[in-house]
Amino acid sequence: MTYHSDQLALDEEGYLLNLDDWTPELAEALAAKEDLTLSSEHWEIIHLLRHFYQQFEVSPAMRPLVKAVTKELGPEKGKSIYLMKLFPGSPPKLAAKIAGLPKPANCL
């Protein structure tokens, strides 16, 4: 992927290969490729995911993601239906991709 004249290394599914290449501006570009416009609610999840990854060195699948969101943002946001509205399809996969993190291991 070319971003600001830089060639970024992505895997075959569009995940960043070098996590240090990630920036908030790149997140916006990755989201746009997925037909998403990032809102403050998206950013809450993206920042939570990046913090989770720093702590555990793994991108969470759905169940641990819901648990982390519930713990950090409250039970009203810690629901899979809420995450599906923000990140359609597979919230853990799509959110991790936009957050510049590896694909969650348990997600197909």
From TrEMBL:
One of its GO terms (cellular component) is cytoplasm. The active site is at C107 (cysteine persulfide intermediate). The keyword Methyltransferase does not apply. It comes from the Bacteria. Transmembrane segments: none annotated. Coiled coil: none annotated. GO terms for biological process: tRNA wobble position uridine thiolation. It is found in: Cytoplasm. It is an enzyme of class 2 (transferase). Its EC number is 2.8.1.-. The keyword Cytoplasm applies. Its main location: cytoplasm. Keywords: Cytoplasm, Transferase. GO terms for molecular function: sulfur carrier activity; transferase activity. InterPro entries: DsrC-like_C, DsrC-like_dom_sf, DsrC-like_N, DsrC/TusE. SUPFAM superfamilies: DsrC, the gamma subunit of dissimilatory sulfite reductase. Belongs to the dsrC/tusE family. Part of a sulfur-relay system. NCBIfam families: dsrC_tusE_dsvC. This is Sulfurtransferase. The gene is tusE.
